[in-house]
Amino acid sequence: MFLGITVLFCIVGSVVWSKSQINLVEIKLLNNLDDKRGFCIDIKGHKSSAKIDKGLQTHTCYSYQGKISVDQGLDADRLKQKELFFPYFDVCVNTTSYDNPINLNLIECKNTQQFIFNKDNTISLKDNKNFCLTVAKEKSRKGGGGSPLHLMRNLSMQICDKKYSIYQTWGIRHFKKGKVFAKDISNF
Length: 188
Hints:
Helix content is 14%, strand content 34%.
């Protein structure tokens, strides 16, 4: 009997993750800046070994490898509820302060910050629409892998400003039958 329960648990757990994988999307900066593969929201660390306590950054999008990586994969269904949820790690994006810039962290998904997807493709805070998700303007840092090497930049909430739109406008990408589909975040 014990063996049967263990096997059932493993199958159910696998089905739950598979369902989330089908609904994975990545949030990509619309301007590729200095990496033709583009920059996606990313948990610091490497794929399934990412360190949620280290927070977020933007990183070369892994989708050029043929799928969305778990450290860049957000649940599409939760995104529609304005929640930035990484299902593999079971964490949501939240703000750590209300200073400028507002830093972001990853926490259990209870009473987390909600986000708004604006018509100009910016992502702002529901509680403070003056702050937009922003990629650092400084030169990219080189990562430890990829060919060419992956690039990284810091990520925070900064005052929304049209003159910085290349650092504040976002799109959504997902895979379907092996093909990449993209749309503006405002159409999600």
